[in-house]
Design brief:
The protein is mostly beta strands and 194 residues long. Helices cover 0% and strands 46% of the residues. The protein has no helices and 19 strands. The strands form five sheets. Strands 1-2-3-4 form a four-stranded antiparallel beta sheet, with no helix packed on it. A four-stranded antiparallel beta sheet has the order 5-6-7-8, with no helix packed on it. The N and C termini lie far apart (53 Å).
Length: 194
């Protein structure tokens, strides 16, 4: 590529898909490394791309969340609210896309048209990528809190003040949430055992 690559690659149907500082969404053959496409994404892509079938979802530094059709190599829709960058990676739900922004809000848009469904405010930038767990969304914020919000309407279910800024993405498995903080610690949350 012509510049840095910060996000992790995604793989689907023998294709590796990733973005970078060259403002291109790259599609590469997983076996040969041959370029299959380099799609103009309009700006520097800091986060990882989320894939579902032939559709790629990504945020970039010029304040937009994009849906790109990998077959047609065209942008299907663009979502933009305020002039703050999307540094986090999006999470894909059945009918919606969820992504954190540097405007201190978690954004939820419809998957088919990119229409805003709800936002959830925090007191810090959200570079932590959200994780969807059934009807709940787990994410961290630079305000030092980890949050769980309702997938349907963005209402708060639970939060915990770690104190140190959170830019890492949570790992969720077996009823546990594991997340690192910029205070140098890794935190584990789970059900209270009897």
């Amino acid at each position: 590529t012509d510049n840095y690559i910060n996000g992790s690659p995604a793989i689907h149907n023998r294709r590796v898909v990733f973005g970078g500082c060259d403002a291109l969404l790259h599609v590469v053959d997983v076996a040969t490394g041959k370029s299959l496409a380099a799609i103009d994404a309009r700006s520097y892509i800091a986060g990882s791309v989320a894939l579902s079938g032939d559709y790629a979802y990504l945020g970039h530094m010029d304040n937009q969340l994009l849906c790109i059709n990998l077959k047609t190599k065209a942008i299907v829709w663009t979502y933009q609210d305020k002039n703050f960058a999307f540094y986090a990676s999006p999470a894909i739900g059945d009918d919606r896309i969820i992504i954190g922004s540097r405007d201190r809000r978690l954004h939820c848009v419809s998957r088919d048209k990119g229409k805003l469904l709800w936002t959830f405010p925090t007191r810090g930038k959200i570079d932590s990528s959200p994780v969807i767990c059934k009807q709940r969304v787990v994410f961290g914020s630079m305000d030092g809190r980890i949050y769980i919000v309702n997938m349907d309407d963005g209402s708060l279910i639970w939060s915990y003040d770690i104190g140190g800024a959170i830019t890492a993405t949570p790992a969720v498995a077996d009823g546990m949430i594991i997340i690192g903080s910029e205070d140098g610690n890794v935190y584990a949350f789970g059900p209270i055992s009897s």
